[in-house]
Amino acid sequence: xxxxxxxxxxxxxxxxxxxxxxxxxxxxxxxxxxxxxxxxxxxxxxxxxxxxxxxxxxxxxxxxxxxxxxxxxxxxxxxxxxxxxxxxxxxxxxxxxxxxxxxxxxxxxxxxxxxxxxxxxxxxxxxxxxxxxxxxxxxxxxxxxxxxxxxxxxxxxxxxxxxxxxxxxxxxxxxxxxxxxxxxxxxxxxxxxxxxxxxxxxxxxxxxxxxxxxxxxxxxxxxxxxxxxxxxxxxxxxxxxxxxxxxxxxxxxxxxxxxxxxxxxxxxxxxxxxxxxxxxxxxxxxxxxxxxxxxxxxxxxxxxxxxxxxxxxxxxxxxxxxxxxxxxxxxxxxxxxxxxxxxxxxxxxxxxxxxxxxxxxxxxxxxxxxxxxxxxxxxxxxxxxxxxxxxxxxxxxxxxxxxxxxxxxxxxxxxxxxxxxxxxxxxxxxxxxxxxxxxxxxxxxxxxxxxxxxxxxxxxxxxxxxxxxxxxxxxxxxxxxxxxxxxxxxxxxxxxxxxxxxxxxxxxxxxxxxxxxxxxxxxxxxxxxxxxxxxxxxxxxxxxxxxxxxxxxxxxxxxxxxxxxxxxxxxxxxxxxxxxxxxxxxxxxxxxxxxxxxxxxxxxxxxxxxxxxxxxxxxxxxxxxxxxxxxxxxxxxxxxxxxxxxxx
Length: 648
Known about the structure:
The protein is an alpha/beta fold. It has four domains: 3-157, 3-Layer(aba) Sandwich (Mannitol-specific EII, Chain A), CATH 3.40.930; 176-270, 3-Layer(aba) Sandwich (Rossmann fold), CATH 3.40.50.2300; 295-475, no CATH class; 479-642, no CATH class. The chain is built from 24 helices and ten strands. Strands 1, 2, 3, 4 and 5 form a five-stranded mixed beta sheet that branches. It is globular and about 85 Å long.
């Protein structure tokens, strides 16, 4: 669907008289109501504000595209305004935005908002086009400019026209291919593709860009194009399919470099400066220029791939188990707590089922990150063996007691399985081409399964011992030792707010939670309260020390506080990025204080996520709230004292 089909004349206002982000959003929402796109403006606004709380929709170059897929929307549509003087919407380039398009999409049906968002992001990359919109004399001229730009960019959609032929390759023979992808697969994916293709036109070098967006890969590169090209640019912030580029010159950079360094990247390929990529069977492109990954970062990336796939099982299972405890009657049978009543038994059984998959999923996706799909089987089975604590002795004699290798055993299984399958790939790569079909269907699964089983049967006694030692140590924690542990893990949650330290503390909390012991529940409570403090502390500081924060900072404070209460530490990242020397130490100390108090009060948490929504299942909930408040106030006061007055 074209932009001009979604944008009605009555939903456009030129040279709008707005000066704040809130006024801008209100005007656009009212335009949607005016033309009948939304049935309930208040409900639609909630969806818009929710999306804004997840991150700014102001992209760069004066462009801002708020959007929401919302039950209040009757029909898909777009509203647009221009604000020549600009509005501060926290754009990625730090500049005010002056060109606004708000997309409204129904809650049910196709992802029209994603299609419209990607299309707008693409056509708005043209600076001359943006200027034409901003200087349009009237709404008709504004709509005509969009219509003509769409017809130019998407000629195959023009009525009665045939798809435009590809640009002829210049006499020099240069041809550059690109793949763009960002984590969300929306705006930056298409902006990078457009920037590279447009820069190629300027340089007289044909460039084709494949977009790995949220709705799948588009403009996919063909085998013939890859074979004929001089090189490939991978502008991506996530893994893309790399095996097809084996033997070709490849440059791998961040998606933002595809937008801002397009000419430099194209010229590197053209000048033969891109290194030849040799695919090793993993998911990444380790030997492509620009990756810059050391061994530590590679291990961290593989670990996070496993953790990210494991978390839904931990969160879903953990919360259901917590509900079971909340609904059960401890006095009926303390030894069967969680299953004493029918309703509690239902939640506990379902939660335990999810927990049972947790470690195999962790190990399986670590292995898959290392060795691609062939690694999944070996990793999954290795994680299962670690979780069950199976050894050679227990396999031969069912009377032998088994102790789970736990989280550490599954971690080991995931990495060993991944590199074992990589070794199998390396060892069989010189087999005749006629056996290529046998390798993934027979050699990798059979030898991978055999190898990881032998290894895990052999090492499980060690991990069982280590796991038992860890749980015994956690169970014996008391007094000052437990307080110090709470202080450390909670403080780590604030060091990088979603980065390696934060994830390490959270993973440790999940491992402790999986033990289903009181000490494990205490650790999880300290971890969560530590992650809740940073956004709340920043919000409190912005209210208490108004002269230390800008108007926009204070306006964002309520959203920050809400996200903190929901255990979303990342809400504090924009503040930490803008003033790390003052914000990070303040948040770390506040979180550490909250974690230490949580431990001192003996607070427990049986769910790994949820913020205030799981407070009903917190042990000693009142003192847990006290710990959260004290830690947040400590962080806020420190931040208020350390931070310099904000510029007017």
